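note to self: the first set is below, dont mix up w the second
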Amino acid sequence: MTTKLILASSSHYRKALLERLHLEFECYSPEIDETRLDDEPATDYVCRLAEQKAQTLSDKFPDAVIIGSDQCALLENQILGKPGDFDNALKQLKAAQGKTVVFHTGVCVLHAAEGIKQVDDIQYSVEFRHLSDLQLSNYLRVEQPYQCAGSIKSEGYAACLFSKMHGDDPTALVGLPLIRLITMLENAGVSVV
């Protein structure tokens, strides 16, 4: 019998990333409170949310392998959330000019029936160029990244914002670190290759 694989997410970006692995899976949106706890470090925050997303669906799918993931952007010890609109996105991008933003992507693979729970934070950093308000506005009009952490939609036009990128897994920047996820899935009994 093949173990059911569940992606605990409504993100079409995470769904598209997981589809790259050519695995059969289903997506379900977990309903959790994503409010950050007082003084919660970025690593703890994204790992807690990734685990909560997976755990929330484990009652409905107790025999499934469930993937949860969450992401935040960290600029000088301040978490940049999803901007929601153009003005907030422009403020975020202006604040990042010439600085490094570290993206923390928490990922959890849970197989409750087997007592397997793996949680990790994969980090990826980007160094921002100095750009004019007009250039930043052009990027925002093209990408409209208002539901993306730190106003960065890295799979598209965002490369124009960066002078340098650093990390072990570029898919972590999009929201689901496939390199780490493959190992976690294999540890949970899901063969990827």
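second set (the one i keep forgetting abt)
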Amino acid sequence: MFQKIRVAVVKSTRPVYLAGLTSTLFFAVGVQKIDAQASLLARHAVYTGIFFLCMWIACRLFAGSLNRRLELEGVCAETAGDMIYTFVIYLELIKHVVGVSFTLGWIAGTMFCWDYLGHKMFLIPAGASLAVSLVAFLVTYITASFVDNLHWPGKDDE
């Protein structure tokens, strides 16, 4: 019974450790550039706290997506072999990288539409932004759907 509790506690603290490590590095690098001004140090500490929360949320979301993907493969995290776990991590990284990339591209594309076409009537930049949004959504959705349909070859597939 205590073994299961320990495993659950250790697994749920991994995102905290990773977020703490990256936040410490973020804070340490930022402190090197700050002269001895208390206001800058306090502002950097607040930004580090915000960075920690964002990293913790991102790690929790990634861990949740790994667990869901492992369930789709028919195994749980404790019983998954190294090859299946590596395969699942690889697929989830592909989905996350494509999602982040197209989200940043979508933001840049809509900002470009409003900056380049902002002097025209309202419907023109709004329509261009909608077109950029639809293209980014379709590419992201198709990629995620394709990756979700990839599965580890089971015994019946061989």
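remember for set 2: Residues 17 and 41 are 23 Å apart (CA to CA).
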